[in-house]
């Protein structure tokens, strides 16, 4: 997967070309340097390895021989809307051993760490929380690709639905095991008969229960009645223990960006997942082509922390730019090493930047076309990407909606100045304004529209594209 980003080549192509060489791999699998070099040769790309490459994978054993220790599993809850995902996560968090750890985190942080007793030991599970709405399907598959296991929630009284099927596919694409939580069993008089029926239906999607000789755990639960939760948690540990999740605690930290926000008081806050090594306060983090010293880290329970180990989700503050979600980061104890690393990346690979909005639209200027320019501002990178990825494709033949800028944060004076020069209107999604920005926009007649719900902003863009709205409307 990482290689496919670096080579700007779809992962299926890489997998196919390896299969032709007789090497069978999955998207998240670790591959050794020789094979990487063979693929790179095909794309006429030179690969230069970092001094100490330590790579782990969730599906195969790490090749690094240095001291690896067990790390907690990362879990995403998936399933059809209203089948009980939110209720289940809430009850799981309440049922943890150390209640204090629950802390004051908000929904927005997007991750929860919970501690449970399993076989006499206190063990942690990290839950990545994703917006439930189908529009956030891409966000969900990103969460899955960073997870070790998925819990698929299916309400027994509603059965397999469209989003259940989509969820199964997304978990399979991410190559992670699924534990099925058959929920709302309090609503049925014949749990046994109904769960058996559901299991038969799930077999059609290749989810075969363990008791039938398959490898999928299926647990009957009632989230609202808090029934079956302990069994579900035990199953998560059993499944993830089979994966033997390990990471090296001694090396410099590496991981992935989950989300970025900008707000007036804290500036840029970035939610990251540490996948390898240990991150200490004061180290330098390199994300994409920017770097900064980590002065402040907040853990998933909302507390300031000085260290973060593998599988920790933490918020850091003070980056100079907003990184895209899914960007990999590396940390360095010495600033000099961080700078070297950036230089090396720049000269070797001319690092590709993730196309955010431009890929979804083509902006060839044509005669007789009405051009409508828009600037999109959104509260977070996740929301911005959700808009970019869901922009409707049906367009009016004579109208061209052009996104001149898309960025995270509140609407600033600079945005309005840019709107003036580029003749754009500003679409603000779930975000606010700097006071001067509002004044300037009023003075210069710049249209600013506020949206709170993703459907509204998408409908508005669609209306613009279909010629149903004019700039003055
Ligand atoms: P989500 O959309 O998948 O996150 O579903 P929610 O957690 O919001 O639940 C949808 C509805 O189902 C809510 O009204 C819950 O109270 C209800 N619900 C969730 N779990 C159970 C359960 O185990 N039994 C019953 N009877 N209702 C449940």
UniProtKB/TrEMBL annotation:
TM annotation in the entry: none
Task: List each copy of the Tr-type G domain by range.
Answer: 70-250
Q: Would the keyword Plastid turn up in this protein's UniProt record?
A: yes
Report the subcellular localization.
Answer: Plastid, Chloroplast
Q: Which GO terms describe its cellular component?
A: chloroplast
What does the UniProt keyword field contain? Chloroplast, GTP-binding, Initiation factor, Nucleotide-binding, Plastid, Protein biosynthesis
What GO terms are given for molecular function? GTP binding; GTPase activity; translation initiation factor activity
Q: Tell me which domain of life the UniProt entry assigns to the organism this sequence originates from.
A: Eukaryota
Residues in a coiled coil are: none
Primary site of residence: plastid
Q: Which family does it belong to?
A: Belongs to the TRAFAC class translation factor GTPase superfamily. Classic translation factor GTPase family. IF-2 subfamily.
Name this polypeptide is given: Translation initiation factor IF-2, chloroplastic
Q: Which organism is it from?
A: Cryptomonas paramaecium
Which residues of the complete protein does this chain represent? Answer: 89 to 561 of 654
């Amino acid at each position: 997967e990482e290689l496919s980003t670096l080579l700007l080549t779809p992962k299926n192509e890489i997998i196919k070309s390896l299969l032709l060489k007789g090497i069978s791999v999955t998207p998240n699998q670790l591959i050794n340097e020789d094979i990487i070099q063979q693929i790179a040769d095909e794309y006429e790309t030179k690969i230069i390895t970092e001094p100490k490459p330590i790579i782990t994978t969730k599906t195969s054993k790490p090749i690094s021989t240095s001291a690896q220790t067990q790390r907690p599993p990362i879990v995403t809850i998936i399933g059809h809307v209203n089948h009980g995902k939110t209720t289940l996560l809430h009850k799981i968090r309440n049922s943890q051993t150390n209640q204090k750890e629950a802390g004051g985190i908000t929904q927005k942080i997007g991750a929860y760490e919970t501690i449970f007793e399993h076989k006499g030991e206190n063990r942690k599970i990290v839950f990545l929380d994703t917006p439930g709405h189908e529009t956030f399907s891409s966000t969900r598959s990103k969460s899955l690709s960073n997870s070790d296991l998925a819990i698929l929630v299916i309400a027994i009284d509603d059965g397999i639905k469209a989003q259940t099927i989509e969820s199964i596919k997304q978990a399979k694409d991410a190559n992670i095991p699924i534990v099925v939580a058959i929920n709302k069993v309090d609503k049925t008089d014949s749990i046994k008969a109904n769960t058996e029926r559901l299991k038969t239906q799930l077999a059609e999607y290749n989810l075969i229960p363990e008791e039938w000789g398959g490898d999928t755990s299926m647990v009957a639960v009632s989230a609202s009645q808090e029934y079956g939760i302990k069994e579900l948690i035990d199953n998560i540990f059993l499944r993830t223990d089979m994966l033997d999740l390990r990471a090296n605690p001694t090396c410099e930290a590496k991981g992935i960006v989950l989300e970025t926000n900008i707000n007036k008081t804290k500036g840029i806050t970035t939610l990251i997942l540490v996948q390898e090594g240990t991150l200490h306060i004061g180290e330098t983090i390199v994300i994409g082509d920017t770097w900064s010293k980590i002065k402040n880290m907040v853990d998933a329970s909302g507390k300031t922390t000085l260290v973060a180990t593998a599988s920790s989700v933490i918020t850091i503050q003070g980056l100079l730019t907003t990184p895209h979600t899914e960007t990999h980061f590396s940390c360095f104890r010495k600033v000099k090493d961080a700078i070297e690393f950036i230089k090396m990346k720049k000269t070797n690979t001319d690092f590709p930047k993730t196309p955010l909005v431009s890929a979804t639209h083509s902006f060839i200027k044509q005669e007789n076309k009405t051009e409508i320019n828009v600037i999109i501002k959104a509260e977070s990178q996740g929301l911005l990407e959700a808009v970019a990825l869901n922009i409707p494709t049906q367009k009016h033949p004579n109208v061209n909606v052009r996104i001149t800028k898309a960025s995270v944060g509140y609407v600033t004076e600079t945005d309005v100045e840019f709107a003036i020069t580029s003749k754009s209107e500003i679409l603000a999604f779930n975000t606010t304004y700097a006071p001067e920005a509002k004044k300037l926009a009023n003075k210069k007649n710049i249209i600013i529209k506020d949206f709170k719900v993703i459907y509204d902003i998408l409908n508005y863009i669609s209306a613009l594209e279909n010629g149903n709205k004019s700039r003055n409307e």
